[in-house]
Design brief:
Blueprint lengths: L1 E6 L2 E4 L4 E9 L6 E7 L6 E6 L6 E3 L7 E6 L4 E6 L8 E8 L15 E2 L3 E6 L1
Parallel strand pairs: 2-11
Antiparallel strand pairs: 1-3, 3-8, 4-5, 4-9, 5-6, 7-8, 9-10, 9-11
């Protein structure tokens, strides 16, 4: 069992930056591929980024590629999402998710993740 807790959300102006953290407790976090998803009001939850168990491989949604960076520190049981050049359309609740399977298969599908955090709100003003 893995418990995930996100933090770092807030209100920022367009063009600004935020760093989200996802702290894990429970079984060895290094055994889990981890992703960030987001959900804006009235929209479906969408994939943002994923990182492999060891941190050597990452994938991003086209909408955030070049602006967001996912990373992890398994010694600290934490995954990060550095968000730069934020846009109003990035406004959403951001969720951390983990799965025991490999990171690549169906990585964009929220249904394949076993564990979820409660989410952290990110609001980007224009």
């Amino acid at each position: 069992q893995v418990q995930l807790v996100e933090s770092g959300g807030g209100l920022v102006q367009a063009g600004g930056s935020l760093r989200l953290s996802c702290a894990a407790s429970g079984r060895a976090f290094g055994s889990y591929a981890t992703a960030w998803f987001r959900q804006a009001p009235g929209k479906e939850r969408e994939f943002v980024a994923v990182i492999s168990r060891g941190g050597g491989s990452t994938l991003y949604a086209d909408s955030v590629k070049g602006r967001f960076t996912i990373s992890r520190d398994n010694a600290k049981n934490t995954v990060y999402l550095q968000m730069n050049s934020l846009k109003p359309e990035d406004t959403a609740v951001y969720y951390c998710a983990a799965r025991s399977a490999g990171y690549y298969t169906d990585y964009y599908d929220s249904g394949v993740y076993d564990y979820w955090g409660q989410g952290t709100q990110v609001t980007v003003s224009s």
